[in-house]
Design a protein that fits this description.
Number of strands: 16
Strand content: 35-45%
Number of helices: 4
Helix content: 10-25%
Strand order of the largest sheet: 1-3-4-7-8-9-10-12-13-14-15-16
Oligomer: single chain
Shape: globular
CATH topology of the largest domain: Porin
Distance between the termini: 80 Å
Structural class: alpha+beta
Length: 317
């Protein structure tokens, strides 16, 4: 009888205690009972130690990535502090190095009573890569002619590199000088794309006097193919801005294109662009919101469009 009772107890324990499963490794590591001389216990201890090492290594890598990301954000913040704090104009490319996502919408009258809408405006994500450089990964512009136009389609892919030559914040001179290398890759549909890549080296400069600022760029379009058809143009854009109250930035721009070669060789296209900017409004953390609205009005006989309404939204970080 005495031998049957322990046997019954062991049988009951075997039924009540669940069998170990493959995913119980972490729990097993916490409930190992060491019996001297058992090799299986030593192996289990080694496995637990290995799991601890993996977790520790993963935690270290995660912490390192967080430190690198934070260091990059801090570096970008310092880069932006070492330059003027002007708002980006509507059509003139700013020479400021920025951390910003920008999306523009354009609307303009077109033939046969239609209206042409362009979404993105060749803008996109701008991010600082070093103390003197910034990249733009643009969003191709989508063009839609409504209500009776041809099917819509995407334009070419915009890319841009900015290299800071010199700059100073408002308290130390309020100026900047930046080299810009813009380009478009021929990725768009045949109706709305150029058909070949275009490279546009540009020099951007700006100077501020208290609340007044002038930003200007001069560059040249250099097609990588079919130069006789596409032609070369010199682009000169200048924005006159004033920082008013309530975060408002009234501005007037002159946007000129001088056709050197191609079908319009010798002609000039000039737009005057009055506009109003707003910002930067704090959203949360490092995020700031700004916007601008204006209209491009043709001032010369040659113009490929007229009365283009421009609406721009930006989120900087």
């Amino acid at each position: 009888m005495a031998t049957k009772i322990p046997a019954a107890v062991f049988a009951l324990i075997a039924v009540l205690v669940p069998a170990a499963r493959p995913d119980d490794g972490a729990e097993k590591c916490e409930t190992i009972f060491v019996t001297p001389g058992e090799k299986s216990v030593d192996a289990s201890l080694d496995a637990c130690q290995g799991q601890g090492d993996v977790r520790e290594s993963t935690d270290k890598h995660s912490a390192k990535r967080r430190r690198l990301f934070r260091s990059w954000l801090d570096m970008a913040e310092q880069v932006q502090a070492d330059q003027p704090d002007w708002l980006s104009p509507l059509a003139t490319t700013s020479g400021r190095l920025k951390q910003e996502f920008r999306y523009d919408i354009w609307e303009q009258p077109s033939a046969n009573g239609n209206t042409t809408y362009q979404f993105s405006g060749n803008k996109g994500l701008e991010f600082i890569t070093s103390s003197r450089t910034q990249l733009l990964l643009g969003v191709p512009t989508y063009t839609l002619v409504s209500p009776n136009g041809p099917p819509g389609g995407f334009g070419d892919l915009p890319l841009m590199l900015k290299v800071r030559i010199s700059s100073a914040p408002r308290t130390e001179g309020n100026y900047l000088l930046t080299f810009i290398l813009a380009a478009t890759a021929p990725t768009g549909s045949h109706r709305y794309a150029v058909g070949d890549g275009v490279v546009t080296p540009t020099l951007a400069l700006g100077k501020g006097w208290k609340r007044f600022a002038v930003q200007s760029t001069i560059g040249v379009n250099l097609p990588t193919g079919e130069a006789a058809k596409l032609g070369r143009q010199v682009l000169w854009n200048t924005a006159f801005q004033y920082q008013a109250r309530w975060k408002l930035w009234p501005e007037v721009e002159a946007n000129a294109t001088f056709c050197e070669t191609g079908k319009d060789a010798g002609d000039t296209q000039l737009f005057l662009t009055p506009g109003l900017g707003f910002g930067r409004l704090h959203l949360a953390g490092r995020f700031r919101f700004s916007s601008a609205v204006g209209m491009q009005i043709a001032a010369t006989r040659l113009h490929t469009y007229n009365h283009r309404l421009m609406i721009s939204t930006r989120v900087s970080f």
